[in-house]
Amino acid sequence: MDGVSIYDRESELKSFDETKAGVKGLVDAGITEIPRFFIQPPGDAVSAPPHYLQIPIIDLSCIRSHRRHIVEQVKRAAESFGFFQLVNHGIPQDVLDEMLRAVRRFHEAAPEEKSAYYSREAGRKVSYTSNFDLYQAPVANWRDSVFCVMAPDPPPPEELPIACRDVALEYSGQIERLGIVVFELLAEAMGLTSNHLIEMECARGHALVMNYYPPCPQPQLTLGTSKHSDPDFLTILLQDHIGGLQVLHQHYWIDVPPLPGALVVNIGDLLQLILNDKLRSIEHRVLANNVGPRVSVACFFTMHLYPTTQIYGPIRELLSDQCPPVYRQIHLQEYISHYESKGLDGRPALDYFKL
């Protein structure tokens, strides 16, 4: 074996993790080739989608006077794409802009300032890490993240990084109110009472995930985020101007173009489960880039970090002899444990819970 190089992936992952500097640390070190554990296997070639396949845009400015029309728009968008963009949603532009600036402030701070938050400890309300599934997923993603549980029991303000503390608290309150509106619209779109999903505690908890995608020297070899669906009821995403988010639809990867002031909404796995596949949690990904950094803030509506006796299964009102339950009843922690144990491996997490 003399002269043959043996690749010790586990050792390389450990060495990367122990720097507590994330992908940003690799870029700051001036690398010109990405480490092997970031290299994606060849994927299925997907040609450019037809021009008519575009993520729907829904204007909430007339929600009071034209609610029924907006409910119908939400229904069509959620059923056809599982994704849509909201404009005129009521969150001030200066709050959105400051939220994005705060994410950059944290991730571009000195390594010693960030490392105090670096942790893989389960259950922490505030943590900074690179790839939550670094040791589980087959390939690492070109992304660093700050994870903050914000509701129903937010951490003391002093536990939040000072770089994003004030605006994270403000944005959290604003996004929670918007989330309630979206859950009401979705419930009505499914023929349920407007507060049905709220009473199921779908909007009671949420976490903010502040993502930072540094410019990559070899973006064609890796991804910012691998193909996956979201482990929650609903995601509301704030993205900057760089772009790179893509949704898998009819075997095409469709771009979700950044729109000033817009927020991206997508159905999560848990909502698909309780709606018995009437809406679907669609797979999506983020491309790596060499022009960034790209910054985004995902709000995940879920209660999985809180002890709850709530059991989730297909909603009774949506079932019939012609539409029997697709999934068994589960506790949230059972779902999250399964999702985190497998990481972003390209396989749908919901398949495990089918009857």
UniProtKB/TrEMBL annotation:
SUPFAM superfamilies: Clavaminate synthase-like. This is Fe2OG dioxygenase domain-containing protein. Pfam families: 2OG-FeII_Oxy, DIOX_N. The keyword Repeat does not apply. Residues 204-304 form the Fe2OG dioxygenase domain. One of its GO terms (molecular function) is dioxygenase activity. Keywords: Iron, Metal-binding, Oxidoreductase. The keyword Iron applies. Belongs to the iron/ascorbate-dependent oxidoreductase family. InterPro entries: DIOX_N, IPNS-like_FE2OG_OXY, IPNS-like_sf, Oxoglu/Fe-dep_dioxygenase_dom. It comes from the Eukaryota.
